[in-house]
Specification:
With 706 residues, the chain is α+β, with helices and mostly antiparallel strands. The chain is 50% helix and 22% strand. A hairpin with a 5-residue loop joins strand 14 and strand 15.
Amino acid sequence: MTFKVKNSLITMTLLLVGILSLIGVTYHSTRVIIDRTVMNHQQNIAAQAAATTSMWVQQQIKILSSAAKSLGSEPEDNMVQTMNILKMTMEAGDFSDVYIGLADGKMIDGAEWIPPQGYDPRIRPWYMRAQKTETIGFSYPYIDMTTKQMVIALSMPITSGRQIKGVLSADTNLDMLMKNVVNARAARGGYTFVVGQGGTIIMHPDKNLLMRQKVQDADPSLENILKVMKGKESGSFSYAQNGKEYILAYQKVENVDWYLCTTMTRANAYELSGRASMLLATESVLKVLGILVVVTMFGVGGSALVLYLYNRRFVNAMQKQQVQISGMNEDLKWNITRRKELETHYQTLFNVANDAIMVLKSMIFVDCNEKANELFGLSHYGILGNNMLDLSPAHQPDGVRSHEKALKIISEAEKGEQQFFNWNFLRSDGTEFPAEVSLKKLRLNNEQLILLSIRDISKRVNAEQQLRQAQKMAAMGEMVGAIAHQWRQPLNILSTYIASVQSAYYNNMVSREFVDKVVSGADSQIQFMSKTIDDFRHFFKPSKSKEPFDSIEGIESAARLISPNYKDCGIELTIIRPQEKYPLVVSGCRSEFVHVVLNLLANARDAIMEKNQESDEPKDVYIVIEHDDSNVIIKVKDTGCKIAAHIMPKIFNPYFSTKTYASGTGIGLYMSRMIIESEMQGTLTAQNYEHGAVFTITLPKIAKED
């Protein structure tokens, strides 16, 4: 090998070594930039979560300060106003409980919790801390005696002038705080936790660590965490655990001595922040290798020029990448803040709704608000995973199986129409309660969901039942008087029959024909009285079960009950039946139907008596019974005063009454329409005609003509 060749080889070798050295330096620089970018990204996530937490803390402090100011100006004996302030504070701050410990040892709880015997709030940590510091502040987490859940208390003294009247404290459920405030998750496998100045774990996904361990003791790999954090507002560092490298970022939360920390594996952090940088570095390395081949082929001069151009290009590319990453961080910061605001806003609206709101996926509950937990007496997780039938009795009040009725409702909802219906549910103690339900199928994020809105109407149903019973009791007074009046004549006739038997015996006038006549007449009067008793008994029969019955027979029963009263008032009652002699059968509670007809007849009587106070016009009431292929139509017409146009829309409202014709309506007409429409699936309407007013009942006919 000649000297010239040797020199060429040496030169080429030195050139390759130089190129390889340049590649190593470039790769190292790229790694440093990527690591710095990842650390900055993690610190941004911790800072955003801490800012959200600080915003929540400031909001809670403002709410409690406002309440304390209001309480400080209220007299101590004004318990009603004090409780109103506590309850409004609970709702405004989404606190699980708000309570006051007074200087005399008395306890006032906004959740109406009754302290056990010997309970003294003045020796509780929240009271002593606020009294000692005379400032507002948070306690460490503890188990609440009311809810038995882990809470954190925010307390402050209540002052009047310079005198401390007591301490106001509010509890926040840690689960709710973790879910709605401290919920930053940077990537798979990452989580967020909060520690105090001494390292005590205040919030952590693992509830077993709360207040029981310090973070440096719970995880030996974090034994130097307090030294790293000391004197710093924020920062990040790496540590190893179970053979994996982790990145931890921390940020001090304003207004409290807390550090909010986020941690995740370095691999996950690279997935979130370093992917683009790594691809660029790989591309650059490939370009360097290509340039190396060109340099090897074309010599030292060409390689030097190419390396110079590559270095310029690499630096420019890295600068552009840093600008892009900075812009991405700003966009990510804005998106996280906006998402937190929207989540907090809609989560608040979802939880403060007066109705229970529940979401089903594949007929299984996947979410519900706090009103649903309260309504069913179950925890959040006691509802999730169940279906609608798990919270319902086997049969609904109309006798239909809950399973069959639910399938029919869902089938109707498949058509895209919102369904409104009444449904009986079960509470956690096994008791049933009625509810109004709105059901709507919708698509969200390419998933088919069902949205249920449930309103407890048990109080309204009980009130309506009480109104109905009150109406019957009012009618009972009239009916008792009517029966007494109705029985007077049959009793007089029976008395005459008995006296005639004695007279006939002494006068030897007793014959077979005489005995048959007396027995037949007495039996007729007794049957009349028995029928009256049956009508009275059926009218007040408490049964509410639905069954088929003859509407004509029910109308005749109501007519017999009120006929004595009509005779006293000089009113003529006429029933116009169909020419056919077969029954017109409808479905419902017979006694309730008779009640409705009796109400309408009583209203007709009142209208006639009001109109005829100063006139001698005819006093007539007509019950016209008609039918078609589907319905039975019953019209109650009177010759009384007409219904005034301005009160016509109001006569079926509960408690509505005037001193005119409508004074007899009120509860009676309201209950009548409710019975006909809700319980018998019919209609009840009113209108005027030439001689007075007419009320029309339309009911589905369930039996065909024989």
